Fold these 2 entries.
Entry 1:
Amino acid sequence: MKKLLKLFSVSAACMALLFLFACAEAPEEKKAEEPAKVDEAAAPAEAPKTVKAGFVYVSPVGDAGFSYAHDQGRAAVEALDYASTSFVESVPEGADSERVIRNMARKGFDVIFTTSFGYMDPTIKVSKEFPEVSFMHCSGFKKSANVSNYFGRIYQARYLTGLVAGAMTKTNKLGYVAAFPIPEVIRGINAYTLGVQAMNPDAEVRVVWTKTWYDPALEKDAAKSLLDAGCDVIAQHQDSPAAQEAAEEAGVYSVGYNSDMSSFAPKAHLTSAVWNWGPEYVKVVEAVRNGTWKGDESLWWSMQDDVVDIAPMGPMVPEDVKNTVNAKRDELKAGTDTIFTGPIMNQAGEEVVAKGATIADGDLLGMNWFVKGVVGTVK
């Protein structure tokens, strides 16, 4: 009996020890059953969107001119690690451009930049077929839910180049080789002429229309006709440097456009009105990427946005002229734009803008008349 009692006592003691150990382990088991907390900050983010951007050019890219300037902007987009780009050059306005734009949309481009005025209607037409694509049309005025138009206040740079040209002419006759009589070109001629006359009230600007954006032979012939008329400074609204070359060959001065054209006429080139599309093209692509891009907008970027400027003035330009031009440039960069502030006269000598009044943007965008001092017609 004693042995049984002793065995029972040992068993009871073991049971008690087991119970104590079980109680001690219980809190850990309960803790292990609690769901693990998820660190939301460490959760994998959604992969960023890669933007595919297309560009359509009216002339060859080359190494100067309007399409060259746009392609420099494309290169800034291509440098982004989240973007890829493609372009088609020398696309005629009209049916050909519609085909090229539609082909890009079919290939899955997220944003398409159509960079010539005559691409406006084809852009609008194709945009209706591809509402998921963002379209940016340069220099036009039509827009829709997925089409915005854009341009720059290149007239500001035109005015500055006019200041230079007005100070450098000896004959008081300046020539201007111009593409088409549309508001964009007319506005630039007027701004240039106002700059010329600010430095030389007796000077006149003679205009010859080529009715083409890009035709080097025709552009050069137009420049020669102005040289034959006694012009000693040749400016242009054309895509090639042919007018610059004609001035160089004749031993007179020139003013370029779109990009710095000094390399084509180093002895003639006074300066150029130039484009810098890169900063804004990058912003557009960023907006498409993050979903903040808006259609149905009209964007008109200025010298403050670094989209328009002038090329360095040539060594033949006197320091006092450079100082005058740079002072006006500083005003424009600061946002003070009085280029189209009256009094302004038209070709007939009639006051069309009163003293102190400024032409509204809408009227500038539709400008179809020449200021006093321009010799030529708007047709």
Entry 2:
Amino acid sequence: MANAQDFVYTPVNPSFGGNTYNYSWLLSSADAQKKQTSTSTSTDPFAQSQTNLSDFASNLNNQILNQLASQILQNQFGNFSLQNGQYTIGNYQIDIKQGTQGLDVNILDTQTGGQSSITIPNQ
């Protein structure tokens, strides 16, 4: 003689028919497992103005550094133009050659192995 009983499945999640008292427990458990930090999307005008101000300062700083680099190149090389050849500047190895579609500039970071390729189209 074999004994048996009915198997009844009750979901835990209240969204799928589970007990509604499980909602807060499930939510707090999910929040505790989050690895991604939430970014603040504050509507505070002061916080937004601080962000805009820091963006402006960063942009201004980049433009000043760009002008400084241009001035250094101008003083060092005169009317700077790209010539075919291979150049080493710091950790960068720059290879310039005429390609089929224009001037090919390949830049290799010898320290990290990172590479960039730029093609300047023929005019």
